[in-house]
Amino acid sequence: MTLEPSVRLLRDFILEHPRLMVLTGAGISQSSGIPTYRDATGAWTSSQPIQHGEFLRDAAVRKRYWARSYKGWPNVASARPNSAHLALSQLEAQAYVQYLVTQNIDRLHQKAGHQRVIDLHGRLDQVVCMDCGEIAARADIQQWLAAHNSHLDHLSVTQRPDGDAEIEGAALEEMQLPSCVHCSGLIKPNVVFYGGSVDKKIISRVFEQLSQCDALLVVGSSLMVYSSYRFCKFAHDHDIPIVCINQGLTRADELLSLKVLLGCAETLKQLAESLPARG
Ligand SMILES: [Zn+2]
Predict the structure, then answer these.
(1) Model pTM score
(2) Shared domain check, 257 and 213
């Protein structure tokens, strides 16, 4: 098969560095109908996202979140993995991808059959009680919201990346908030909001896995948030080369050994088809 020149360079790089850690961001889920947070320059494409502290402190913020999430969740719940997720899963089966860390909260890597995935920023298909720690299914909360907030059904909305949606005004006043079925405590989607922190044990595990790999491959992320950029810094400090498939600028551009400025799906598909399975 004829490969794009930059894809051929990446394939040759992988043949020399076959044990990969892959780090994925919103760019990989875009063609599954989940829009990205940032445009090609790394600037925000939408209004500021929910802040962790405000969510816990302010019932009005929680009302806004759950109203938007009620409208946005069906889009995330029904999203299917695209050929980029499938190609990465194939590259795992071919023994190139040792570990995968994703900034995405949509579970599309798992839906694509990927085995070893760390959800760095949590998972949107769960909620967690901030008082007793109970985990519940987001789908159950959706049913509860539907039963208690039927007035939201008539509002039109715009989709946002975190299963969120823009909702205006007065409907929020009447909004009924869901709570923990065990202790009636405050529940939060089981994801890391801005201003929240990633579990330190998860970060240590990623560092440990990364040190066992030959290279770090970044896919569809601008690396603007420190929680993912730190892995590039770690790799760089430990002489682990970093390569990237991303159509826009990234915060780690000066650390990269190679960058492919093509779409994730076409590039990964060509890689998976052109790399021989490792024995
Ligand atoms: Zn609880």
Answers:
(1) 0.90
(2) yes
